[in-house]
Amino acid sequence: MHQVIVRELVQHPQKSGELLGTAALMQLAASVISYSLILVTISLLRPEDHLAKSLTAIVGSMVLFRAIDVSVFWFESQVLSKYTVWARNTSFFLFSAVKVTLILGEASVSAFAWATLAEVIVTSAFMLLAMGSRGPSIRNLKVSGARAIVLVRDSWPLLLSSISIVVYMKIDQIMLGQLMNDTAVGVYSVAVRISEICYFIPVVIAASVFPSILEEKKRSKSSYYMRLQSLFDLMVWPSIFLAFLISGLSSWIVSSLYGEEFQSASIILSVHIWAAPFVFLGVASERWIIAENRSILSFQRTILGAALNVALNYFLIPKYGPLGAAVSTLISYAVAAFFADLVQFETREIFRMKVATLNLNAAFRRASELYS
Fold it and tell me: Residue 252's closest CA among 238, 237, 270?
């Protein structure tokens, strides 16, 4: 519901109490269901692995705090994400020190799981404080059954789309573990963790400009699409630069962060990082889908990407191992975030805009015209 709520808060600010209260209750209910499914799933996958079940129970309980995310929705709608950043960064640096202490003390892996959970709890507390001081009073939040129905109607395709995204972002690690071994998962996870570090960038950019895109939509269709084109331009070239940089330095990055014993992860990283441009574009086009209230399109293309990733993993992992999983991810991201727009009639204009971003000179010209 994230972007749906942000859209509604921008368009109907007078209903913020009802929107936030209803969303918080729905998030809480979904969190309880999710946590239950997490516990059932790990019990089925690793019935005899008590450590895995214990760690999953601890780290999985983080989802129970997702209801606090409504504060993030409100700050984004007001273009005040700095408070979210302050809260999260304060907690991050605090618990980075805690984790360094645990490393130096050679603590158990369970201790790190508890520290991760504690970080989420503290971050949630900071967000509540920020919401109480800068946003609507928590006492003014209320729940509306009618509003909940509207939110479900607008966001259920995004729910299924999010599930599909999780599938094709994480299923490769599950399939590696099932088709190969945990060592392969470990090597692959090193590459993926480094690659996915940059994925916060498009989320931050999109969150910052999405309210202004919605405002432009109210004023003029031409200026609305100019803003969208500018967002695509802003997404593509930084992601391509990052991909070139990390791909070229993959060997040094892996050895510096994880040591020579994980050097085999460098070739995986050099392939997996090229999914970044498609991730950046996907985040940008998702904002257009939300603005147009066409969330079913998001579901259709992400289910396509998830199905393709599973199929490619099935054939490539047994033959190429973790590298095959990286290739599968790259192809599925490209199809879901780029080529699917060409297939769907309603998104062909968006596909044209994405292709237009590849002209660097034109992108600079558009930027100068927009911000002059």
Answer: 270
- Phi, psi of 263, deg, nearest 5: -60, -25
- Which ranges of the chain would DSSP assign to H, the alpha helix? 2-11, 16-45, 50-60, 70-77, 81-104, 109-134, 145-179, 182-196, 200-219, 221-248, 250-258, 265-272, 276-291, 295-320, 322-334, 340-343, 348-356, 360-371
Q: Token pair for residue 242?
A: 């990052």
Instruction: Note whether 34 and 63 are within 8 A (CB).
Output: yes
CB 282 within 8 A of CB 333: yes
What lies within 8 Å, CB to CB, of 325 at 6+ separation is 172, 173, 175, 176, 188, 268, 313, 316, 317
CB 216 within 8 A of CB 293: no
Predicted TM-score (pTM) of this structure: 0.69
Distance of alpha carbon 319 from alpha carbon 321, whole angstroms: 6
pLDDT of 227-284, one tens digit each?
A: 888 888 888 888 899 899 988 888 888 888 887 777 888 888 899 899 889 988 888 8
Q: What is the DSSP letter of 263?
A: T
- Cα–Cα distance, 295 to 227 (Å, whole number): 20
Q: How far apart, in whole angstroms, are the C-alpha atoms of residue 277 and residue 259?
A: 28
Tokens of 190: 């090193």
